[in-house]
Write a structure and sequence with these properties.
This protein has twelve helices and 14 strands. It is of the alpha/beta class and about 400 residues long. It has one domain: 3-Layer(aba) Sandwich (Rossmann fold), CATH 3.40.50. Helix 1 packs across helix 9 and helix 6 runs parallel beside helix 7. The structure holds nicotinamide-adenine-dinucleotide and sulfoquinovose-uridine-C1,5'-diphosphate.
Length: about 400
Amino acid sequence: MRVIVLGADGYLGWPTSMHLSARGHDVVAVDSLVRRRWDTVCGTHSLLPIARMERRVARWKAVTGRTIEWVKLDLRNRADLTELITRYRPDAVVHFAEQRSAPYSMIGAAQAVETQYNNVIGTLNLLFALRESAPTCHLVKLGTMGEYGTPNIDIEEGFIEIEHNGRRDRLPYPKQPGSFYHLSKVHDSHNIMFACRIWGLRSTDLNQGVVYGAQTPETELHPELRTRFDYDDIWGTVLNRYCVQAAIGRPLTVYGRGGQTRGFIEIRDTVRCIELTVENPPQPGEYRVFNQFTEQFSVGELAERVRAARRVHGLETRIEHVPNPRTEAEEHYYNAKHQKLIDLGLQPHYLQDTLIESVIQLVEAHRHRVRPETIDPRVSWRDGARGRLARPKARRPAAAGSAA
Ligand code: NAD
Ligand code: USQ
């Protein structure tokens, strides 16, 4: 298949581009590189040095003999995007290209607007480009488990059967997102579902849980094929952050009481889920939702898992319950279904102490790059960052996005 990967310079987009190419698909990798700019703005960077896209695709070709075509493009530019879709007429588009940090979206008005403009308008532009130039193309859209929030009933995969006043229907599952970022994904879902219903487009909305891990078989082929690894307060996700905190001897930062429960998935399973979804498209006009995670944990339990993995090596790790910068339920019911990708053939990698240890070892090899001043939370859900993000005092010039 010819597959366009949007957001191909990112944590998940780059490994997915390589994985689909390794599977024999014809991959076009697209990104505006805005994430490297957001790093500079936030004083953050990838712990693992990442090469520029030109180097990455050249190295991929040198190592595997396969071609990934690289195109720099911003989804907010509708004319460029339409031209791209018209030129390649893809069988599938995998859409990762969004501002994906909840804390970034809560800094203040400018960042909330930027997040929703970038995400909602980018996706809307894509829907129009597909209608115009590739109406049978399968849109594989990265959504988030956070669209559902934490309701006091089981979470279904996108839709719920409801009986109301003696009548039944299958309706979109209620959404209670927890940040302006998560809200942008809900708005996307509505726009995509509408485009499928009205224009007959076909799409899979992948409501993904929190991703952890740093390596896939393809990223390990050469240092220039690595993907980014975030650990700071704005872009770092919880388990990756804990691994860095453990590696540098800092306490693990459990926000609040720690009963916040989420779906989690390892990065090797993310790329496999995308492959399975691309290779099993929906019918024309169909909008379907898969919950893309493999296990659920509370953030307190995860901290205990990291502590236990360290203890095996005789190392003690402190866990600190810091005041929660977010407004979220800290003790709640959580039971989310995640069967559809397993039915397609996903064989999950469940969280193992050995995986935690391998991530910590990778971090230890790069510990000289850790910026400890980016670990404590700077953004509060109640007060934002007073409209701007105070840049942490850098110990060295920003190395965001610098080539390996
Ligand atoms: P990332 O920030 O590492 O990558 C996103 C990429 O998209 C960046 O390279 C950025 O430059 C690009 N991009 C953003 N806006 C763009 C635009 N307008 N035009 C072109 N390119 C643009 O994020 P990630 O962790 O790889 O996440 C990818 C997707 O998966 C996101 O949509 C995110 O919401 C979703 N997701 C991520 C996780 C996670 O834990 N990382 C979990 C669930 C869902
Ligand atoms: N948390 C801690 N300690 C930390 C960091 C986070 O306890 O040091 C807690 C948060 O309060 C939250 C949970 O961990 O309850 C998850 O936070 P996170 O930063 O790991 O993830 P989140 O903000 O939800 O966002 C990430 C990705 C986003 C994706 C989402 C999937 O950045 O793109 O959509 O995971 S989900 O959580 O299922 O919505």
